[in-house]
Every structure is written in C-alpha cells, then in structure tokens.
Amino acid sequence: MKRFVVALTLFAFALTGCTQxxxxxxxxxxxxxxxxxxxxxxxxxxxxxxxxxxxVRAGDVGALTSKLVLTKDAPIxxxxxxxxxxxxxxxLKNNVLAGxxxxxxxxxxxxNVDLAYFKSHNLVIPKHxxxxxxxxxxxLTVIENPNTSSTGLAFLALTEAYxxxxxxxxxxxxxxxxxxxxxxxxxxxxxxxxYYTYFSGAAGxxxxxxxxxxxxxxxxxxxxxxxxxxxxxxxxxxxxxxxxAVLSNASNPAGAQALIKFFEDKDFQKALPRSMYxxxxxxxxxxxxxxxxxxxxxxxVLGGDLDIANKREQWLxxxxxxxxxxx
Length: 327
Fold this sequence. Notes:
By secondary structure, this protein is of the alpha/beta class. It has two domains: 23-106 and 240-292, D-Maltodextrin-Binding Protein, domain 2, CATH 3.40.190; 108-239 and 298-323, D-Maltodextrin-Binding Protein, domain 2 (3-Layer(aba) Sandwich), CATH 3.40.190.10. Helices cover 40% and strands 21% of the residues. The protein contains twelve helices and nine strands. It is globular, with a radius of gyration of 23 Å. The N and C termini lie far apart (68 Å).
C-alpha cells in the first residue's frame, strides 16, 4: 500500500513538472503609467516569441526610475520601457541597466493651450512659453514636478538651455522661475494629473487652460467638427526620447531582449502615435493624417546638448529652492 501511494505521488509530481514545463516563461516589463499596448499586439508578441508578457506599472518616469534604483539587486522586472533622456543618466549611474539602451519613440515637450478658454476670455495665446510670467497669464498654467516627472524635468532643462545660465548671483533662468512661481503656476506630481485632472482642455474639468504636455497632444483632442480643441506652443521645446533596456540581474534577459526587438518591429512602431501619442523612432513608419494637421513635431527644439547627467541635481536643487518643495 505504501509503495502504491509513493508511486501515485511520484506520478502526480511528474505530471506537475510536465505541466510547469509546458507553461510559457514570463517576461516582466516595468513601464510608466502612460504605457499602452493593445491586446492584439500582446498576443502577437506572445505567439511569435513564446513568452508570456506581464506588465508592471511603476508611476511616472521619475517614480519608476527611483523604484528601479531601490530594487536593482532584486529587480521587479526583466526590462524597462519609458526611461527617457532626462532620467536615463540616473539609471545608468546606479547600474540599473544591463547593456545598451534602445531608443523606441520620441516626443516634444511643449505647452498646450485650451483654445475655447482663450477665445471665451478674449485672451491672446502666448507666442512663446517665456511669456507665461506676464500678469495676463496669472494662475492659468499647470506644470509637472521635475523631481518625479520626466516632462517636468525636460522643461526644467529647457529653461537652462534657453537662458544659457551664465554665472551670476541669480542666473536669468532662476529669475524666470521665480517670476513663474509668483504668477501662480500650479505644480502637479506627474503628467497624467496635470493633463487629465488640472488642464481644462482635456477632460474639461480642470481650471488651468495652459498645461505642460507635448506637441502631439492636440491630435488627441479633435472634436466633432474635425478640429482640435487645443494647440501647442511649438517654439523652443525639448525633444524627449524614450528607451527600453534590460534590467541588471533580470531573471529572463533573453525574454527581455525579445520584447525590445518587438518594440522595434513595424507593427508596434506603427501603433505608437495612437496608443501613447508619441512619434515612432522608425522614420519609415507612416504617421496618422491627424498628426500632420494637429500633432506635428516642434518647430524648434533646445537642450539636446545639455550635460543632464552632471547638472541634474543642481537644477533640481534650484527648482526645489524656488518652490520650497522637498526632493
């Protein structure tokens, strides 16, 4: 009888082992909260690669990067998507990433305005973001905190590039930030809060008609008349590039590499404008017609040559001093 029980146990264990072996291996992607991928694309990746995709969302890019730094010895995933050229230096400095970072998409950080608000208030739309310190735009603007948001950090870097930051007791960029603060700018934690909660031109419930967003955002605000309800201030913006990379100590680096290769695939690249409102890094991918009309790239970009890795902490320190916030 004992032998029979033991035999059954061994047989059940063998079946369990076979079942486990038959299950596809999981590849875990860590992404920011704005990451989006269709079920059809997930199915395509899983069928072609043999891996099962699991997605862990880790907040805005700043929060995501911090979590990856804190968990680098026991990472919460196999790869990351969405670390950009403002926060990538932090990840690289802390040895969070294994090997190279691969560019997947880009977008231009620009201010957006609610056209209906400006029309109803008979207010002239500013030609340049530097004019947002003028009294007529008091209490109208919401931006993102650069400590936690890549969008906010991109704009902080942009002001450094625009004002050139010459050595002085109070550099011109700080003078501008002080004036911006005193003109009633609202600082939100991240892009989703700024855009969908505080901006009046998206869901329509916010009270701020000017938001720090992207040149492509107006392509997502087309009304029944075929026109966008918003517009971007497309002069002197910051080009933000998002990367994918394998995480150090990843349990499934092969699966991570397979997913990165899939992100470069034309089907995924083609979906980027509609899924995440960013431009595909592949220049051969066709852009939706609505983007050509309402979501074109910025007319001019600045800050691409900045030494973000070495200057970031000082810039954030200056911002935190202006707004009296903790990092």
